[in-house]
Design a protein that fits this description.
Protein name: Ethanolamine utilization microcompartment protein EutL
Organism: candidate division CSSED10-310 bacterium
Largest sheet: 6 strands, antiparallel
CATH architecture of the largest domain: 2-Layer Sandwich
Main location: other
Strand order of the largest sheet: 1-6-7-8-10-9
Shape: globular
Oligomer: single chain
CATH topology of the largest domain: Alpha-Beta Plaits
Keywords: Bacterial microcompartment
Structural class: alpha+beta
Subcellular location: Bacterial microcompartment
Number of domains: 2
Strand content: 25-35%
CATH superfamily of the largest domain: BMC (bacterial microcompartment) domain
Distance between the termini: 31 Å
């Protein structure tokens, strides 16, 4: 094990409801065109959030529900609960299936966390999204297709690193997740050009590793 080891997330359970009961659909605030529903749980919430955004770019689906569970995957309600449940709705089973497949592929291969210390106990997420989908663009109040730095780390490390990221590139802070979040991290969404967002991710990474290597340093 070493610094910057990749930490991959795992999909725990997936189901497709081909024709959602309309009374239930009303309770879920689904639109009239939302006939099918996909359900997904994952052991990492932020990996899932960026992945369901990817699903909106690959299929005719909307993220109709996504919520982290309190205390994170270390204290799940069941073996398949993980850290989050997400729901994708679409007009047909085929569209929702395509959305689920896109989300699963992104979780497993793209939404990668990294270790900031040799024993992999301090992990962080310096994730660049070159082009946002409908879900994250709405959350960040930016245009679909705009770049985004999706940055997450433990509370002190993350707070210090967000400031470093903002100073390192011409990016704008559009969303701040104050500590503690449901899973006891902190994070931010930054937008700008793709190159600026990449520079912000790099600065965030370097700052998190700096705190990990020298936890007490203020003079």
């Amino acid at each position: 094990m070493s610094v910057l080891d990749p930490i991959r997330s795992k999909v725990l359970a997936v189901r497709l409801i081909s024709a959602i009961n309309r009374d239930f659909a009303e309770k879920l605030d689904l639109k009239a065109e939302h006939n099918s529903l996909g359900l997904l749980t994952c052991d990492n919430d932020d990996a899932c959030y960026v992945s369901i955004d990817e699903a909106t770019k690959k299929a005719q689906v909307d993220v109709v529900y996504a919520q982290s569970f309190y205390a994170g995957s270390a204290f799940p309600s069941g073996p398949l609960s993980g850290e989050i449940i997400a729901m994708l709705a679409g007009p047909s089973p085929g569209e929702v299936q395509a959305g689920l497949e896109a989300a699963i592929d992104y979780i497993e291969n793209e939404a990668i966390w990294f270790s900031a210390n040799p024993d992999n106990t301090l992990i962080f997420f310096p994730h660049l999204i070159p082009r946002t989908g409908n879900y994250l663009s709405a959350m960040a109040e930016i245009e679909p297709g705009d770049p985004l730095s999706y940055l997450v780390a433990p509370p002190l490390e993350g707070t210090y690193a967000i400031d470093a990221a903002l100073k390192a590139a011409q990016v704008k802070l559009v969303k701040y997740f104050a500590p503690p979040t449901e899973t006891n991290f902190t994070g931010a969404l930054l937008t700008g050009s793709q190159s600026a967002c990449k520079a912000a991710c790099d600065a965030f990474q370097n700052a998190v590793i700096d705190v990990s290597e020298q936890p007490i340093m203020f003079r």
